[in-house]
Amino acid sequence: MPSERLKEQIEAIVSELAGTEVPVRLERPRNPEHGDVATNVAMVLAGRLGRPPREVAEAIVERLDRSQAGLASVEIAGPGFINFRFAESVFQSQLASIVEADRAFGRSSSGAGRRVMVEFVSANPTGPLHVAHGRGAAIGDAIASLLEWTGHEVAREFYINDAGVQIDRLAESLEVRWRQRQGEAAELPEGGYMGEYLVDLAAEVEAEAGDKLRAMDPGARRQWLRDWGVRRLRSEQEEDLRVFRVVFDEWYPETRIYAENRIQDTLRELGERGLTYEADGALWLRTTTFGDDKDRVLVKGDGTYTYFTPDIAYHREKARRGFDLAIDVWGADHHGYVPRMKAALAALGLPDFLEVVIVQIVRVMRGGKEVRLSKRAGEIVTLRDLFEETGVDVARYFFLMRSAEAQMVFDLDLALDHSEKNPVYKVQYAHARMKSILRKAGVEPEEADPRTADLGLLTDPMEQALIKQLALFPEVVERAADARAPHMVCEYLEATAGMVNSWYHAGNPSRNPALAVLTEDEALRRARLVLTRGVSIVLRNGLELLGLTAPERMEREDAE
RNA sequence: GCGCCCGUAGCUCAGCUGGAUAGAGCGGCGGCCUUCUAAGCCGCGGGUCAUAGGUUCGAAUCCUAUCGGGCGCACCA
């Protein structure tokens, strides 16, 4: 990266001027007239040195070794910005390095040596996954991917809440449905699961083990239904997620926390640290010591644990399993739970171990009206309903294209639009077009080789702007990973695709054959094919990073 | 009542640790098809950045207050 070298040089100059280390930030000006990169360091330094910003800027510029940094021009502008423009050769060599890196372009090792667990979805195994889970699934998976691209060692994990009262209710509800099937007048329990899916599952139960269940005593039958229901629903979730292209390294059951006595270990450790106490017949944790609003109950008056307790033990296990950082992706309705969980981990001596990404709610709109996500004939209820209608690529992209912390509207009409109005297709189309040009040129991608092309021939402003845009990709990945913000990659891909489509159309042979990739001029054609390949590499890497496909060609529906 | 998120163009949203005339997509309006696939492209219009103060050379961005929307405030999970 040429800007890296420049940054180091400026840092050296500036720390000499100031007499101390001064961090330098190079930014990309919005306005291209302000150069390729710019810095405000002279303004930052002006106050400290007691000199006018422009004078400080002069001093910095005087000391610069332009050729060493690959600079074509440097100017001081406005209140004291320094604007830099790189030599064209710098961008030409960047295009060459994009093509050479190919699938590795955009990857870095900045996170090397860091083991991170991303835990997401973690839906209760009491029913099918809903639309809201889909957003968490897409975002969690993309964050994990971003961390992998930046060199972290990443594990994706799903925590199965297969213990606790919600599972008792599942077992009861399933039993009621099974008995109703046999004509008994059974009523769903308070807080039972009313979904129709349990009626279907009851039919499966009957087919699989009806006679056996009738012969069992009630306790054994309940236990059997409980195990069967959890297993069945869990595997249905796993299958839905697999089709949605989200694959977990581990499905970690809550019952394992109990089976391995982790709760006792955790309570003992908290007790030894003097952070628990008994009051009103319950055992409490002093979470207020670590920033929570009130202390929390660990063991209820009846001797059972709150939901919190096994969850603390589970997060303690994450650290014990060797992870340096745990990132949890939670729904907005759990945000109030964040301070207490962080407090509990701080109590265990793990103050910075947990990072929580809160994913806000999704509203689905069709025809300008909100789709009620309750069960109603023909309306979308589950994640599977949604992606079966839109396709997996579209559903994933729509979930990812907005920042997680903002509520989002899922516009089904736009999602179902197969034109380039749909941002997913816009990006995929741009990719397919590059592939189409390569096919038309009759070359394999590897034959578009920067070593046998003169990239100096790419002098058109559109081409140069495009090369600069492609070169930004690694920085975008880096920032998106740091910010746990996959939507930044979407923004970048859409902007890139827009430029690609303009370039492609400008070179439409019927309009301006001089700009066409497949031009008569053999040398120019070779150079443009390298750019074509570079574009396809960046778009493909970006799409695949987000878990989307990069199609070789787009299906064309015959227009009427 | 307290806490968290949000309030930017008609709609949906970007705006990176404050930076140079506030951006994109959709919708609207006007052009452009014997195509490296027009499922498109080019251009135009459109904003008191919720409001009021404050900090700063500089605020959509930071601070305070107010208003509006969402969510959460259990010995539920």
Number of beta strands: 15
Distance, first to last CA: 49 Å
Q: Please state roughly what percent of the residues sit in beta strands, choosing from under 5%, 5-15%, 15-25%, 25-35%, 35-45% or over 45%.
A: 5-15%
Strand order of the largest sheet: 7-6-5-11-12
Can you give the helix content as a percent range? 40-55%
Question: What class, by secondary structure content?
Answer: alpha/beta
The helix tally amounts to 21
**CA-atom Rg in angstroms:** 29 Å
Mean pLDDT: 91
Main sheet characteristics:
5 strands, parallel
Low-confidence sequence ranges: none
Overall, the morphology is: globular
How would you briefly describe this protein structure?
The protein is 50% helix and 13% strand.
Question: What layout of secondary structure does this protein have?
Answer:
Layout: H1 2-18, E1 26-27, E2 37-39, H2 41-49, H3 53-63, H4 66-69, E3 71-77, E4 81-86, H5 88-101, E5 115-119, H6 131-149, E6 153-160, H7 165-181, H8 197-215, H9 218-243, E7 250-253, H10 254-259, H11 262-272, E8 276-279, E9 282-285, E10 296-299, H12 308-320, E11 325-331, H13 338-347, E12 354-359, E13 362-366, E14 369-370, H14 383-390, H15 392-400, E15 408-411, H16 412-415, H17 423-441, H18 461-471, H19 473-482, H20 487-506, H21 522-545
Parallel strand pairs: 5-6, 5-11, 6-7, 11-12, 13-15
Antiparallel strand pairs: 1-2, 2-4, 3-4, 8-9, 9-10, 13-14
Helix pairs in contact: 2-3, 5-18, 5-21, 6-15, 6-19, 7-8, 7-9, 8-9, 11-12, 14-15, 17-20, 17-21, 18-20, 18-21, 19-20, 20-21
The protein binds one RNA strand of 77 nucleotides through helix 2, strand 9, strand 10, strand 15 and helix 17.
